[in-house]
Amino acid sequence: MLAEPAFQGNQSYLRYAFLHELGHSLGLEHPFEDRDGDTVNGVTDPALSVYPQDTVMAYRLPLEGAWPQVYSVNDWAALERIWGVRALEQPPVAQPQPSVQLGYRLLDEHSNQEVARLVVLGDSVDPDTVYTLELQASTLIEGLTLESADIVFRFDPTLFRDVQA
Amino acid sequence: MRIGQALPVANAIQIDNALGQIRIAAAALADLSASGSAGLGSAVALEPAVSACVALRFDADHLAAIPQAPDGGLSRPALGFELALNDQETVLSRSFEDGSGQLNREDF
After folding, report:
1. Which of A67, B39, B48, B90 is the most exposed place for a label (fewest CB within 10 A)?
2. Residue B103 exposure: Cα atoms within 13 Å on the Cβ side
3. What pLDDT is stored for residue A124 in this prediction?
């Protein structure tokens, strides 16, 4: 609630106060507010805290006497943190339909049994285990034949010994 | 590392063990046959065909340096790998009849 007479016709100060109070309703707090333990720079004295140019939630007189008329970068950052950011809607981009599918089968070389995965968190690791990874290719459209392929396989080089050609 | 029988022609394998990347360029000539003999490679179509095999062996020294959970497992996220196809270098073909009675194939 703003008591307009209190601003003595200072429209700039009135607008600042409006932004300040609106900021509260949107979840912003004073920069010196320490009830939740996150004051700006650890300062709890309103007179020593940051300026209105830093945030419209400040209590100090503005630098050079000019009351900010818009939310500051810090205010927007806080509002975005509270409310999130609505992604701009992008026009749909036509994606080329894939015509080739890559796949794999992972085999334990000793048992020649197919395994579902290499190692996941919590699995015991036997460094002597040798896996054979079969890279597979197929077309996705009937009537098409794959004549040549350029396939890139990436792996964590620190976990495996050198792959030999 | 070996190339599968599906794409055995003029294959090139580039292995970068430091980067952890293997690039395979391979092709088939399944339709090129001489007097009844089969062409090179098998036509890769809807049915998945093995294009290459890679033998992976864990590096024991590196595994020993990774902190382990009480059950002996690795205390780091899942180990995985990535497969990608370079669309610019991938050639597909399809057969068509041009009215001459001969079966033709065109690449695209």
Report:
1. B39
2. 5
3. 67
Contact criterion met (CB < 8 Å) for A127 and B58:
yes
Q: Considering only residues B84 and B32, tell me which one the structure prediction assigns the higher pLDDT.
A: B84
Taking CB atoms and an 8 Å cutoff, what residues of chain B touch A110? Answer: none
DSSP line for A18-87: HHHHHHHHTT---TT--TTS--GGG---TTTS--TTT-TT--SPPGGGPPP-S--HHHHHHHHHHH--PP
* Subunit contact B47:A142, Cβ cutoff 8 A: no
Which of B51, B97, B106, B108 to mutate to probe the A interface, most A CBs <10 Å?
Answer: B51
- Tell me what ipTM this predicted complex has: 0.74
Beta carbons within 8 Å of B61's beta carbon, 6+ residues apart: none
Backbone angles phi, psi at A2, to 5 degrees: -115, 130
Q: How many helices (H) and strands (E) does chain A have?
A: 2, 4
CA atoms of B78 and B64, how far apart (whole Å): 16
Q: Are B58 and A154 a contacting pair at CB < 8 A? A: no
